[in-house]
Design goal:
- 2 copies of one chain form a homodimer.
- The first copy, chain A, is an alpha+beta fold.
- Chain A is about 25% helix and about 30% strand.
- The two termini of chain A are about 30 Å apart.
């Protein structure tokens, strides 16, 4: 019914003609607005709308969320009213969100007041008719707006360090190969480094251990494989952000640091953790669903930058190592991914 | 959420701004396209669509159905593709008719093939992928297309002629006053003509008896009153078309002819009947739901014209007496209407 993965005008136009709605995406890495915005002409704009897909907290702080996409669309020549419609009523109608997407009788009074429509400078935010933020400052604490408790979501079955080990059963093993600056991965078949009948990480060849552990219902499911591309010389990274199931995912040069990192994640009830030499070097707690923080955005961005520096100091050459890590569990994009049920050959849609 | 009763651009524009969809109506009597079509500009056309509301069979034969509205919109300057969208996908999306309104994968193959897009000249009709009509002729019989049995819908409780009588309980009685060429009625309070303690029709003053009899579940509900404006000098008209409940409605100069007409309607299982002097002068059977015929449209139109002539010969001065009759049961339009539960003061939304 819709697609948020169109990257060329031809592709989006073909899908539109076949009856699909086009989600024009501006994520932190995938940016499709410039290519797709010519589609949103007088005839078709009602069937197009804006999404961000993955947008990291630093971009939220500096550029904004969907509001940033509206600004970019206006800069690209879209009428401001129409750009706002594409981010509000079009989206609400597609998802059948009754009472959302417009200012009208019978609709919820979730509103923003703008100083300036061209730059979409937000002056006030109303939630269900009440002023909750003004000039960038919250007036109401979040807890007074929503009393849904989404914390305490990390539920893992008790495990031993031995549960992370991989028995050597073959002279070649599939390894997830990271492609720098791309979301796809490549399958590599590498000769494993074996010790006492177990495959172990090979830091020389950048073959690091990758673990995915189920964390919603404490099933004890653990997926194990190797990944090439992180470049860590020591230590481990672990995260409770892992698309789309958001289990725990961890990469490391040794089981001990992975073990400590996962246990720290459980204690924090979600977040990002870096360990090395048996010690926790840094962390960012994300206690809301294991995905979000209630801290001010500035603090979160600053903490994430610190973690990036720590990862770099351990040898990791990736710009956003936790973002890269989070996508290694996404079993819908080629070629090889790891889930809590094991390694997935996405080209064949099969567990290996 | 929507309105099909807008008659001025100002009204329609106001409703559009308040979040409503605008149904642009072209019925047999109410024609709003010329007034409302400027609303369907580049920004708003997706929130407007075409309806016919009430369109009689003669107009269906000569002008067409919603196709006639599309042709008129094209004549008014709307791009043909957009005019077709307003009659298809816009309607389907508003009513959430999944799989309808477009030619695309996942949609039903209910299609028309046009010789000429400007005049919307239909060459072929496909239903669920099969050619069912070509150049105005059915290829498949209707029964092979739909096996839903919608006949035998007229179920009335056995009644006597005495059940149509109205006891005289007051020296004034409310009478439905027909306003020529308008759908509204006026309340008139007339001194009733009384005989043996019953109010009887007064042909001299054109005060005729009006009956509405429940016909879906044989409840025995009968509404009785008087109406001024038909001008019949003798006989009765009865119909199983009576908006919106479509009970039986009958008007007459005497109970005997009304009684015979209603009984004939039951025998026909719906339709239109004219009686006079205890005899059936003419009828049109509408056995499908008591509303439609399976006969060719030409035959239906011809038969209706014959009935109009018979009604005129009995003194009825109305152009479409059965259409006028059908609206007397519609209890949502001022001022006075008759239902099977009695007379309704629509201004006060109360039974009298």
């Amino acid at each position: 019914m819709s697609d948020h993965e169109c990257t060329t005008l031809e592709e989006a136009s073909e899908k539109l003609k076949l009856g699909m709605r086009i989600m024009i995406r501006e994520g932190s890495s995938e940016k499709n607005l410039d290519a797709l915005i010519p589609l949103a002409d007088d005839n078709n704009f009602k069937r197009c709308f804006f999404v961000v897909d993955d947008r990291n907290c630093a971009d939220l702080l500096v550029d904004g969320d969907v509001d940033a996409v509206i600004r970019k669309a206006i800069s690209a020549g879209i009428d401001p009213i129409r750009a706002i419609q594409m981010a509000t009523i079009n989206t609400a109608e597609y998802f059948r969100l009754e009472g959302h997407g417009a200012i009208a009788p019978g609709y919820r009074a979730n509103l923003i007041v703008l100083n300036d429509i061209e730059n979409l400078e937000v002056s006030q935010v109303f939630y269900e008719g009440c002023l909750v933020a003004e000039r960038g400052e919250m007036i109401e604490p979040l807890s007074r707006i929503s009393n849904m408790d989404l914390t305490h979501s990390v539920k893992i079955k008790s495990f031993e360090i031995q549960d992370l080990m991989i028995a050597a059963i073959s002279s070649a093993a599939p390894v997830i190969g990271i492609v720098p600056d791309q979301i796809i991965t490549k399958r590599r078949d590498e000769k494993p480094k074996i010790e006492n009948n177990y495959i172990i990480p090979d830091v020389e060849r950048d073959l690091l251990k990758l673990i995915v552990m189920e964390r919603h219902r404490a099933t004890g499911n653990i997926g194990r494989t190797f990944v090439k591309g992180f470049g860590l010389k020591k230590g481990a990274l672990a995260s409770s952000i892992a698309h789309d199931s958001h289990n725990i995912i961890a990469v490391g040069t040794n089981d001990q640091d992975i073990f400590i990192a996962i246990n720290e994640l459980e204690r924090l009830q979600g977040g990002l953790v870096i360990t090395a030499g048996g010690r926790i070097l840094g962390s960012l707690a994300l206690p809301v669903a294991g995905l979000l923080s209630e801290e001010p955005l500035q603090n979160v961005v600053q903490r994430l930058e610190e973690l990036h520096k720590i990862a770099a100091s351990l040898g990791c050459g990736l710009k956003s190592p936790f973002a890269t890590l989070s996508f290694l569990a996404l079993p819908v994009i080629p070629e090889l991914r790891l889930t809590d049920k094991g390694l997935v050959d996405v080209n064949r849609f099969e567990l290996i």
